[in-house]
Amino acid sequence: MDIKELYQEIILDHGKNPRNKNICKDFNKDAKGHNPLCGDKVHIFLKLNNEKKLEDISFEGEGCAISMASASIMTEIIKGKQFNIAKKIQEDFLNMIKEGSKLNMNSLSDIENMTMMSLSGVKRFPMRVKCATLAWHTFVEAVEGNKKIVNTEN
Amino acid sequence: MDTKEIKLKFPIFKNKVNGKELVYLDSANSSQKPKTVIDRISKFYSKEFSNVGRSVHSLAVTATNRFEETRDLVQRYVNAKSREEIIFTKNATEAINLVASTYGEKFIESGDEILITELEHHANYVPWHFIREKKGAIIKFAKCNDRGEVDIDEIKKLITNKTKIIAVTHISNVTGAIMPIKKIVDLASQKKIPVLVDGCQGAPHIKVDMQELGCDFYAISCHKMYGPTGVGILYAKKKWLDILPPYQGGGGMIEEVKKDNITFPGSPTKYEAGTLQTAEIVGFSESIKFIEDVGIKNIMKHEKEILEYGLEKIKKNNSVKVVGEPKNRGSIISFTIKGIHPHDIATILDEDGVAIRAGHHCCQILHDKMGLAASARASLGIYNSKEDIDILSNAIKKCNKIFNN
After folding, report:
1. Looking at this predicted complex, what is its ipTM?
2. For the domain that residue B362 is a member of, what is the CATH number?
3. I want to staple B273 with a disulfide (CB 3.0 to 4.6 A). Which of B147, B201, B248, B391 is the partner?
4. Do B373 and A7 touch (CB under 8 A)?
5. Of A12, A39, A128, the CB nearest to B347
6. Range(s) of the domain holding residue B363
7. Which domain holds residue A66?
8. For A6-15, what is each residue's pLDDT tens digit?
């Protein structure tokens, strides 16, 4: 396959100009993700209100274009959504990256769908799957987990 | 050097990678294997296999002889004084752990100092960390300078009456800096401090002579020497092997076992517990023969030529920054490209059949020091040619193009 299927414009754009890359104000949940094999690091911050709505989400970190773009895309898509919906999007995303299944979320707009689909090329690069999934695992860990550190190798 | 002919000796180069000819630039990580090595393992299992050093039947005698012949070849290759100074381990990591554990156990006490450098691979730091934890010892790091090398004066400065061992790499696996081992040994010997050398990047690429270097311990990784995985070598001066305790206990390393006492034989038997990677060790004999056939001087000359060509070519690309500028450099070029993460570089290069490594190369201390999270590394072997460098250089330009810089 062509390498450009992996490095699509949209990914390069998010990689270079990541959205929501900061520490969001009044965050009440956070978790760190680390891929010790390649050094990708991500720290997710989010503000979850009493109705379990993701009022705000942001991230900090460093890593390859795939990991940074994936984190940026994730924050853009799940910001403002209910956690249970965001979690379904996450599961859908993981299935797309790992199994190659199509996205089947009705709650996503066409643009959101297309943005997430831009990462589907990662599936054909097994060594890069963890780069794409790190932020998404870390986001769920921030809400549900108790260890607060996601390590791709544990 | 006719690298086309050399490549023919390595079956891996018959395969295409992503539809392209393989340009293998990851030999510092692990080298490819000549057919003679691969065939030797197969022949050993087909015709000569038995466990070594135990039974008395014919196969056992043959297998033992083949196994011990490798030891003789290694002794000759590194010019050790005696064959008893050559110990087979599972890798260079185990070789260093063996020394850290046995020497550390016997000679390092609370407050004693272990002197290493900021260039070290984790394999020459973590084992000493264990001794630091266990004994309350101190690890001192000789600083690496802007050129990515460690100055001899840096080491001199840190030697004290408490220094119990100096453990240094022969060649940095990141910056390629060749360390002045002889000078370090001279300094250390004035205070009777033993020196361990991590020779992983040394033994496959430059002449290594134990009697000339004078170091006390030298660790070798056979799979980086065109040999099989699962085999490492510890060279150790006999005077140490005679007084250090055994490392692992088990079959094959005992003299007499009684309910109330166990005695141990001399080296190398004392340090080779259990059944080793027999076939791989026999196979490794062909790696040494291969290197000796090509000639280490020819290897050095050829790799230097490719290295210089590579450095010149890569530096022409303004977005590329080479990591380190050591005065004496082994066959390694680590680099970064502005605005592109090393893992993205490695993936894009792979599309063109170019295999490099990206990451911290098991040298986090060094990368932290240089303010890098990771770097890309092209490392040479005997099979690399100027065309390989040209393909690498073009693939780097492709990275620039994809990332628009």
Report:
1. 0.90
2. 3.90.1150.10
3. B248
4. no
5. A128
6. 3-26+295-402
7. 3-144
8. 999 999 999 9
